[in-house]
Amino acid sequence: MEKYYGWGLPIDISTHGYGIDRIIHIMHAAMALLFIGWFVFLIYVLFRFRARKHPVAIHDVKHFKFPTIVEVGVAVFEAILLAAFSFPIWVHLHDQLPSKEKALEVRVVAEQFAWNIHYPGRDGVFGRTDAKMMDAANPLGLDKADPAAADDVTTINQMHVPVDKPILAHLSAKDVIHSFYLPVMRIKQDAVPGQSIPVWFQAKATGDFEIACAQLCGLGHYRMKGYFVVDTPDKFDAWFLENEPKLLK
Amino acid sequence: MSEHASHDLPFWRKYIFSTDHKVIGIQYLITGLLFLLFGFILMLILRWQLAYPGQPLPFIGHLFPESQMIGGIMLPEFYYQLGAMHGTIMVFLGVVPVAVGGFGNFVMPLQIGAPDMAFPKLNMMSYWLYFIGAVIMIASFFVPGGAAQSGWTSYPPLSNIASVGQTFWLVGMAFMINSSLLGSINFITTIIQLRAPGLTFNRLPFFVWAQFVTSFLLLLAFPPLMAASVMQLMDRVAHTSFFMPTGLVVNGALSSVSGGGSPLLWQHLFWFLAHPEVYVLILPAMGIVGEIIACNTRKPLYGYKALVYSVIYIGVLSFVVWAHHMFLTGMGTTMSAFFQVTTMIISIPSVVILTTFVLSLWGGSIRFSVPMLFALAFLPMFGVGGLTGLPLGLATADIHLHDTYYVIGHFHYVVAPGTLFALFAGVYYWFPKATGRMMSDKLGRIHFFLSFIFMNGIFLPMFIMGLAGVSRRLYDPTQFAHNLSTQPLNVVMSISAWLLGLSQIPFIINFFGSIFRGKKVDNNPWKATTLEWTAPSPPPHGNFATEPHVHRGPYEYSVPGAKQDFIPQSAPEGAR
Ligand code: HEM
Ligand SMILES: [Cu+2]
Ligand SMILES: [Cu+2]
Question: Is A58 at the interface with chain B, CB within 8 A?
Answer without folding.
Answer: yes
